[in-house]
Amino acid sequence: MLNALHVMGEYWEPDADEPTALGALVGAVRNAESVSALRELERLLSGFVLGLDLPVGPLVAAVPPGPDRVAHPVPSLAACVAEALDVDSVRAVLTRSFATPQLRDTPVGRRRDVVEAAGYAVNATVRGRSVVLVDDVVLTGTTLDYLAEILLDAGAAEVVGIVAARTRLRDG
């Protein structure tokens, strides 16, 4: 389990089917692969992390995208977090071997199975290190919790999550 989860903001407006300004920005990064939106999201996330109480000298790791997602913002977001914290980012702390269905389209009770089927692995020495795990969006936290588990099993001292936006379960 994560020692802490820090979420910069909400993806959706409360009680509305409209994204917040942050949600629109994250959507532009994820769906349109907008470089200018990515730079703005990196700027916001860098400022956000500077205000957090984080472990000293952590290893910053990205939640790895599936092999079917060539252009994905999370490695870049992890690099900007590392730069803001003035620490190293190891691009391949975690790897993922297999493409899986989108978790947002998976019933909550089956999400852990989908995450386990992705073939995540720890590929860097984390023993005794604090790890900051970076992702763009969180819904239920299934992926972050699973990755925290495997990092802790590999010897990490603690795992803290940083996420740009929290989304919500869809109706129906």
Which tags fit this structure?
172 residues, 20% strand, two-stranded antiparallel sheet, globular, 6 strands, four-stranded parallel sheet, alpha/beta, Rossmann fold
Plain-language structure description:
- The relative contact order is 0.23.
- Strands 1-6-5-2 form a four-stranded parallel sheet. Strands 3-4 form a two-stranded antiparallel sheet.
- The protein is 34% helix and 20% strand.
- It has one domain: Rossmann fold (3-Layer(aba) Sandwich).
- Helix 1 crosses helix 2 and helix 2 packs parallel to helix 3.
- It contains five helices and six strands, in the order βααβαβαββαβ.
- It has 172 residues and is α/β, with parallel strands linked by helices.
How far apart are the first and last residues' alpha carbons, in Å? 29 Å
User: So how many helices?
Assistant: 5
Q: What is the H-and-E element order?
A: EHHEHEHEEHE
Total count of strands: 6
- Radius of gyration, in angstroms, nearest whole number: 15 Å
Strand-pairing-aware structural class: alpha/beta
**Main sheet properties:** 4 strands, parallel
For the record, the count of structural domains works out to 1
Q: The CATH topology, please? A: Rossmann fold
* Annotated CATH architecture: 3-Layer(aba) Sandwich
Summarize the structure.
The chain has 5 helices and 6 strands; from the N terminus they run E-H-H-E-H-E-H-E-E-H-E. The protein is an alpha/beta fold. The chain has one domain: Rossmann fold.
Secondary structure blueprint with pairings:
Blueprint: E1 4-10, H1 21-31, H2 35-50, E2 59-62, H3 74-85, E3 94-96, H4 111-117, E4 120-122, E5 130-138, H5 142-153, E6 158-166
Parallel strand pairs: 1-6, 2-5, 5-6
Antiparallel strand pairs: 3-4
